[in-house]
Every structure is written in structure tokens, then in C-alpha cells.
Amino acid sequence: MTILTLTDQPVAAHKADALVLATQPDGDGATLAPGHGLPRAAATHLKGALAAFGATGRVDDVHTVAMVPGVAARKVVLTGIAPKSGDGKPTADTLRLGTGAALRAAGTADTVIVDVPAGTEALLAAAAEGAYLGTYAFTAHKTTGTSAKGGRKTKSATGNVGAIRIQVADAKDRAAKATLKRAETLSAATAYARDLVNTPANVLYPQTFADSVAARVAERKLPVEITVHDEKKLASLGCGGIVGVGQGSARPPRIVELHYTPKRPAGRIAFVGKGITFDTGGVCIKPAASMLTMKCDMAGAAAAAEIGLPVAVSGYLCLAENMPGGNAQRPGDVVTMRSGTTVEIIDTDAEGRMVLADGISLAVESGADAVVDVATLTGACMVALGTRVAGVMANDEPLSRRVLASAARAGEPMWPLPLPEELRAKLDSSVADLQHKGDMYGGALTAGLFLREFAKDAEGTAIPWAHIDIAGPAFQTEAPFGHVGKGGTGYAVATLLDLAASWGAK
Question: 11-58: per-residue pLDDT in tens?
Fold first, then answer.
């Protein structure tokens, strides 16, 4: 596990595997960011290297220089921290991305020193988060030779770097130490979410997912109450949505409830996550190529798993496998949801909204002030917003603004999408209260409209609710960027934690 610490020792004197330094645009090239504290000879050498490399000083422009005169570290990693376009002024987001890109380039190391402009709380947090997440590597199923018993030894999921030391003016500063601790907690939660997403479906399925969450809470000694509802309990609770989705699998569904209640909480917020550990599409089977990354469907549930905040938080992890077994549900089936609403199944590959709907109903019953669900829900959202931006839909404008504000602070791009009332008629059914899917147009929006139906109390009064569709940014299949490598990204963890932490500030 990667350890984050602060240091205020002279930057050039650190004996480390790598020293990370920031660069910024300078005319047609790049230069070292101010405040680096290097000896003149080292700075001159590196500026010459930047010119030779044709460096730009912008995010994802990374260069490595070995054996720099006057620097004890074995190599120096020069990373751009300016936006890819515009005036070139760095921000917390670009610092996070730039530092992450540098740590990815640094590779496996015992110790890395990070010296970037981090003079404010926001910048220090961004640098620490980027550095920690840039080291991420999922190696749980990689082997490293033979064990004493003659079998192959397996690595554990961990980072590539043992220790990261962030350069600051005063390593004993209490505020800086508190900022670093929060950044480490957030980054560890995001890395855990990545682990869950990257774990193959034969290892991570509803019961083992629930076991993993319980074990993590126990290991970290979190004051969280956990309840796991098995398939019999879900049936007795009337959760027909998740029971129907999971009935085609030999591995039955689970809903995991997590409740954290501090003394004198400022309010209560509930998170609901879709955790489809593998999705074949059910009877409406997917093309084979589309199944390869379906394990990313548990990213939404993973995002709600790390709780430890000054507001009461309830989490509902809705876990199921969507398989085409002999008892799988069929198009045309009608199920009764936890809320009592009957739903006609139109497409078994639109299973996520069914498990979420039952989770939302349970969350409403908890008495939460607001409910936020997170899911890799629709390809339509990816068509609209691409692979790096999530869509946000809500029945409450103030809640929508708070979610978007948290996303902006967390550096996770999100964009508001509407819930057009004229599309609601697409969910009318001739045989049930609702059908769970509309036609091909506005698919992300009709999914949101369907979920909105369950954000109501027993009297039918709407409860503030927001839906975050992370279908695009939850799993990175293209080239790595910033602190994001290929595979699960842990997207939305930072947003949810920021939302919960700021919930009491009305």
C-alpha cells in the first residue's frame, strides 16, 4: 500500500528513486514551475532538457531525465501542469492530472519525491490525490515465481510506489497534515473502487462483493453498521426488481446496507449503487465484445462503500449477476417492486434501473434528507457526453447544483441533463403501472424518469433525489491520462465523499 507523507528537506538532497517536478508553458516551449528550490546547475540542466524534448508544460506532457547534476534522486520526472489549451494557468484539476501522469511515468519505485506548486489546501490535496492514484496498479492475479510449496505466488492489489513524499514549506504544519490525511483516505477509497471494478467476475460476485465490503469496514475499524439481505430476505421485502434480475444466475443477488451515524449529525444522506457484477444482458443477450468490460457495472456501488464523515450516511449496494439461466426473467414479465409499483420488463439488458429502483425505495424509507444514486446505466449517456463526463439528473434543482459543485471540486466532470415530462409517456404500460424502458430516443433521460418514480415516500411525496450516470467515465478502455490508467477508474468516489462532507453546510 502506498504511504503519503510530507517533507520540507531540500529537494535536491532527497535520495529517492524519482523526483517529480512541475513544468509550465513558456513562450513556444516549457520551463520549470516557480518555487522548485533546485541548485542553479540542476535547474539549468533541466531547462536545457525541456528545450531538447520540445516540452509544452501542459497536462500529459511528461519527460524523464536521469542523473541530473546536483540532484540525489536517480531520475527526475518533468510533468506539465497547465491546461491543454487556453492561457496555461494551472488549476487544482490540472495539478491532479499532471502529478498523476508523472507517477504513472515513474513506474515501480520505493520512494518518489513530489515537488509541485502546492501552496494552498486545494492544491496540496490535488497533488496528493493525483500522486497516489497515479501509482495504482491492479496486480492481484499476477504471479511472481514459485512459492515454497511449488505453486505460483500471486501478488496483491497494490500501488507501484511504496512511499510518496510531498514537498511543502513546513512538514509539521497541522493544516497540511490534515489535508494530506484526507487526500490519502479519499485516494485509498478510490483505489478500492478500482480494485472492485477490475476484479474478474468469477472472483467478485454478489456474495463475495458483500464479504469484501464487510471485511474493509472491519479492517479500517469504521463505525458502520452493515446488513446483508440475501435472496430470501429480498423476496420477503418485496424487492422484485433485484430478485428478477438475479434469478437467472446461480449466484443470487444481495443488497448490502451500510449505516454510519455520528453524534449529533447535521443531516442524513443516502447513496445507492448499482452493482451488477457481470452483465450478459440476460435473455436479451449482449454481443460477446460488449461483455468484456461489463464487470465495470459495480463501479456505482463501489463508490458508496467508503463512509466516515460528519453527516449520517446510508449506503445501499444493489448487487446481482444478470445471466440467461433457465429461470431468467423474460421480456413481458411483470414484477412488483419494493414500493409496490408493478413494472413490465421490456428488455432484460436494461437491468440496472431495476436493481436501483429497489435500492432507492429502501433509501427513502431510511428517512434520508436526500438520495443520490450512481450507476453505469446507459450507453445513451455516453453517446451524449462521451467517455469522460457523467450525466446528472434530479427532481430537485438545489440538490443537482450541490452534486455538480461537489463534482467540480473533486475534479470529476459532470453535466446536467433534463427530465423532460413529454418523455414520461414512453414508460406507460398496458399491463402494469410502468414499463421500465422507452424507445431508442432519449434513453438516458427515460432511465432517469423511471428512477424518479421511486424517489417518493409512502404518501407519494417526492424526496430530493439525484441520479449520476457514470457509464462513460467508470471504465477506461482508451489510452491512460493523468492519474487515470486503463480499467476501473473509481469515478464518483470523490464527488460522493465531498457531497457528504459538505452536507451540513446549508
Answer: 999 999 999 999 999 988 999 999 998 999 999 999 999 999 999 999
Q: pLDDT tens across 107-159, in order?
A: 999 999 999 999 999 999 999 999 999 999 998 888 875 544 555 544 555 67
Burial 420-453 (b: 16+ CB within 10 A, else e): eeebbebbeeeebbbbbbbeeebbbbbbbbbbbb
**Under a CB-based contact definition with an 8 Å cutoff, are residues 58 and 90 in contact?**
no
Three state DSSP letters for 390-412: EEEEECCHHHHHHHHHHHHHHCC
Could you tell me which residues come within 8 angstroms of residue 166 by beta carbon, excluding any fewer than 6 positions away? 4, 5, 6, 7, 114, 118, 124, 127, 128, 131, 180
pLDDT, residue 147, reads 47
Annotated binding residue 349: yes
Cα(79)–Cα(100) distance, integer angstroms: 9
Residue 61 marked in a binding site: no
Query: Mean pLDDT across the stretch 468-492?
Result: 94
Alpha-carbon distance of 164 to 109, in angstroms, equals 10
- pLDDT-derived band at 263 (thresholds 50, 70, 90) equals confident
Helix (H) or strand (E) holding 114: strand 109-115
Asked if the model's pLDDT at residue 65 lies above 50, the reply is: yes
Contact 199, 295 (CB under 8 A): yes
Query: In sequence order, what E strands does 230-311 have?
Result: 254-260, 268-279
Across the chain, which distance is largest between two alpha carbons, in Å?
A: 79
CB atoms closer than 10 angstroms to residue 169: 11
- For residues 325-335, average pLDDT: 94
- For residue 133, how many C-alpha atoms fall within 13 Å in the half-sphere facing its CB? 37
Q: How many residues does the chain have?
A: 506
- Catalytic machinery residues: 286, 353
Kindly list the structural domains of the chain, giving each domain's residue range(s) and its CATH number in brackets, ordered by start.
3-186 (3.40.220.10), 199-501 (3.40.630.10)
Q: How far apart are alpha carbons 127 and 111 in whole angstroms?
A: 16
pTM: 0.94
- 172 annotated among ligand-binding-site residues: no
* CA distance from start to end of the chain: 36
* Residues forming beta bridges with residue 466, ordered by sequence position: 372, 394
pLDDT digits (tens, 9 = 90+) for 355-384: 999 999 999 999 999 999 999 999 999 999
Residue in 21, 26, 73 with CA at minimum distance from that of residue 51: 26
- How far is 65 from 74, CA to CA, in rounded Å? 9
The verdict on whether residue 60 carries a ligand-binding annotation is no
Q: Which three cell numbers stand for residue 223?
A: 463505525
Contacts of 200 (CB under 8 A, 6+ apart): 141, 295
**Which residues neighbour 276 within 8 Å (Cβ) at sequence distance 6 or greater?**
245, 294, 297, 298, 319, 320, 321, 322, 351, 352, 355
